[in-house]
Amino acid sequence: MSKIIDLSVTQNGITFPNPFLLASAPPTAYGENIMRAFDHGWGGAVLKTLKPDFMDIKDVTPRFATLKDKNKVLGFQNFELVTKRSLADWLPEIEEIKKKYPKQGLIGSIMADIKKESWQEMAKKVQGAGCDGLELNFSCPHGMPERGIGAAIGQDPELVEQITSWVKEVSEVPVWVKITPNIATPIPQAEAALRAGADGLAAINTVQCLMGVDVENFNPLPAVEGQTTYGGYSGRAVKPIGLRIVSQLGKMGVKSISGIGGVSDWKDAVEYMLLGSTTVQVCTEVMLRGYAIVDTMIDQLTDYLGRKEMSAMDLVGKALPSITSHESLSRIHQIVRHEPEQCVSCGRCVIACSDSGYSALRMLNREILLETEKCDGCSLCTHVCPTGSMSMQGACARL
Ligand SMILES: Cc1cc2nc3c(=O)[nH]c(=O)nc-3n(C[C@H](O)[C@H](O)[C@H](O)COP(=O)(O)O)c2cc1C
């Protein structure tokens, strides 16, 4: 009899049918769309950030740019602001979503000016409409910091602590603080949030960036009538930054983390979970490919968990003990191994090793020759090889 595979996860008492959540962004900008996403199988959603009605939000056009390799988007820039929609638009939609989809988790992302009444009012209204949790947006890196909010809050631990405690005074549902990566270390803001009683952390928001410059007309990109401003970077390119920050929070002992940044398939999500995330949020990949990507993510996570004989919750934090300091890493020396059957004699490994390495590789009659005593074990050749014919082999006596 085949075992039932448990994809469900529970974070701060909120149970999600699977760990895949839509992040706060255009895919969660309308209730109707969120319900369509739930029909596809998403385990939950974080609403596009809501704000008090007196805060005027005017987006600019265009507001997106991409970094591509051929047709594949590697990185995505935006300087979109929070929702332009009013609370009168939103609150009935939240009620409707929760009524129709009681099993999916709905988290209300909120932002306000730095006033106790504003944050408390937002928290009370959004939880009152039925959200299962709140996410405090202390991390939007564009537009909002100019008004002293967004990432300007995340960059100031005192403000993080102050505002989180205001919200905690009135909250009846779990509160997650969304962390900004635009700071040397996430630890002071995370500690401040936890001191104030935050139930969990969500990381990361976008990384401040400037996508490029049109070299013909000198317009920085994305150009809004010839001018630009700094935006937020997301998508595949930011995953290593997200993983680093999530693992730092995991190493601090934080038990409730929602991992975000560059998740494009089930495997990215599993990586975030192994580093301490219970849920994982997705934005850019859905913007590029639509809600339906979750179908494959669910199927492939199910296969993986079946193969590993694990539940989704078993994954959380499993890789954390293997993150250590540079000083503690093994000094056992490894060298490269060359598999001639897979080699196409392109010579890229030889160029890399002679121009940026240790001249341990040569090509003779289209054959790669390795001088083991010269190989420093850096692994550069394995990364430039297009066929996988270079790999690292185990311990070698030379130190
Ligand atoms: C166009 C766009 C709009 C976004 N709007 C919000 C927002 O309103 N509130 C928020 O907390 N994060 C917002 N984000 C950030 C995402 O929620 C997410 O943290 C970030 O994009 C990284 O995840 P990804 O690599 O899966 O896109 C936005 C991102 C994009 C691309």
Describe the structure.
By secondary structure, the chain is α/β, with parallel strands linked by helices. The protein has helices at 31-40, 87-100, 116-128, 151-154, 157-170, 187-195, 239-251, 266-274, 284-289, 293-308, 348-356, 380-384, and strands spanning 9-11, 14-16, 20-22, 44-46, 64-69, 72-78, 105-110, 133-137, 175-178, 200-203, 207-209, 212-213, 220-221, 231-234, 257-260, 279-282, 333-338, 361-364, 367-370, 390-396. The protein folds into 2 domains: 9-322, Alpha-Beta Barrel (TIM Barrel), CATH 3.20.20.70; 330-396, Alpha-Beta Plaits, CATH 3.30.70.20. It has an 8-stranded parallel β-barrel, surrounded by 8 helices. It is 31% helix and 21% strand. Helix 1 runs parallel beside helix 2, helix 3 (116-128) crosses helix 5 and helix 5 (157-170) runs parallel beside helix 6 (187-195). It has 12 helices and 20 strands. Residues 23-26, 48-49, 76, 78, 80, 82, 109, 137, 140, 178, 205-206, 234-235, 238, 260-263, 282-285 line the site of flavin mononucleotide (FMN).
